[in-house]
Amino acid sequence: MPRTAILTLGLLVLASGAEAQAPSVTLGDAVLRLGMSEAEVRLELAKHSSLFLSSDGEITNKSESEIGKENYLNGLYDYGDIGFTLGKLTHVEKHWRPSSDSPDTNVVIASALYGATDSVTGSAQKICRVRAWTSAEPEQDYKETTIECDALGATRGVHVFIKTFHFGEKEAHSVQVSETLDAR
Asked: Taking the model in full, what pTM does it have?
């Protein structure tokens, strides 16, 4: 076989392998890879009857007719947001929000944090950045812890948000864990 044919074949194998290795986030059973077209994302979500893409780019396990109704999976409301640049998927954000009727919210939140961190870091050692920051306003306090790691052609992150709403002498808390994937 001529040397140029071998080189071309090798490059094709590498290119197909690189595409298969595109960074991804699994939302429900759907696998969303950076670089997918909007049509490919819709097709992937259509394979999974429990996931829906709303007109504003939010992925949820609730159809638009079910919004506002309780629909939790394993104690978590599972949803996400996506973004496209020049017709290609460049941003995926997966959220885990504990349900109000979860029997043990601490376990649910810790499990979500573990799942997101394991997805971002995997078994390979990576160099990651960790930061924490707060914001205080009269109506609410906001705390965020962020872990961001560089991957091939992407940045992966875990974000833990805690919002405390102040209603006179009463307080309400909202906690969410998010996994992000952004093209670089």
From this structure: 0.67
